[in-house]
Amino acid sequence: MSSTKPLPGEKAIRKRIELCRVRPGQKVRLAEYNTEWGGADLKKGCTNKQLESLLNQDVSRLAKAQDLLAAFSSWALLVILQAMDAAGKDSTIKHVMSGVNPQGCQVYAFKPPSEEELKHTFLWRCMKALPERGRIGIFNRSHYEDVLVVKVHPELLASQHLPAGKPNKEFWEARYDDINQFERHLERNGTRVVKFFLHVSKNVQRKRFLKRLSDPKKAWKFAPGDLHERACWDEYIDAYEKCLTRTSTEWAPWHIIPADHKRVTRALVAEITAREIHKLDLHYPKVDAKLRTEFKAARQRLQCEKR
């Protein structure tokens, strides 16, 4: 955490962070997670103005942390955002990353896989989009689609060119294991993985869909298929609960973020992301004696140039 004086409401945000982190082995029941603020105590602890102040502070911290990440160049940060439709993934990315240098950050939004991608393992297209060391990568949806959307619609497996077999419990357990080992490999090789599930209520999703349909500037975000997916709400909740339970690990834990109020979502995601970078204990590279001598000579040469 920053050594600066805590802002009003920061204590409430810290408490929320502890509540939203999924411990390894913890069985997730999403009905137990509040989609708004996480309890009346937090409502009293954070006003909208305070949340904006916290977000601005964390955006500034992220900008500084990104500079360190680039200079240190031994770590990358991968931020994974998963959610139901209209939970606020796009706006969270826009606001939380508003202060970072675009040259050091990349965003990849995963759409339905192409024919080429379907002919590879489900992790292949995500491997290609990973950030290099020194950069922040953001996945808007991710490899988790293959244990969420595909699990809710198992008929999609027919297009994945898999060996013969039924998508039974063992099949999905194997996919969870593949994901866990993939993320462990990333952590061991210098990519810190931070995962967020933006937890929106069904009623708020309905309101946001209606707002999109009523606003010509937002109508393009709505697709007829959105209602088809909404009709599978319970199936998606079940898929998410199993996924969050099986893939929250010591090296890549999930955070269940309340998403009914976007200011809360943004403040929490920004705070957790900034924390994770600072946990890496980054520092600016030290200049050795030989380079210091060369720098001194270069400085003298520049100072002697005629203006």
3D architecture notes:
This protein is an alpha/beta fold. The chain is built from 13 helices and 5 strands. It has a 5-stranded parallel sheet, with helices on both faces. The protein is globular and about 75 Å long. The model has no long low-confidence stretch (mean pLDDT 90).
Share of residues in strands:
5-15%
Strand order of the largest sheet: 2-3-1-4-5
- Write down the overall geometry: globular
Q: What is the count of DSSP helices, taking H or I runs of 4+ residues? A: 13
What is the straight-line distance between the termini? Answer: 45 Å
Low-confidence stretches: none
Helical content stands at: 40-55%
Give the topology string: H per helix, E per strand: HHHEHEHHEHHEHHHEHH
Mean pLDDT: 90
Q: Outline the biggest β-sheet.
A: 5 strands, parallel
> Strand tally, please?
5
Indicate the structural class: alpha/beta
Radius of gyration: 22 Å
Q: Can you tag this structure with a few keywords?
A:
alpha/beta, 307 residues, single chain, 5 strands
Task: Give a short synopsis of this structure.
This protein is α/β, with parallel strands linked by helices. The chain is built from 13 helices and five strands.
Q: What topology emerges from the helices and strands here?
A:
Blueprint: H1 10-20, H2 40-45, H3 48-72, E1 76-83, H4 89-96, E2 105-109, H5 115-118, H6 124-128, E3 136-140, H7 149-152, H8 169-188, E4 191-199, H9 202-214, H10 225-230, H11 233-247, E5 254-258, H12 262-278, H13 289-304
Parallel strand pairs: 1-3, 1-4, 2-3, 4-5
Helix pairs in contact: 3-12, 4-12
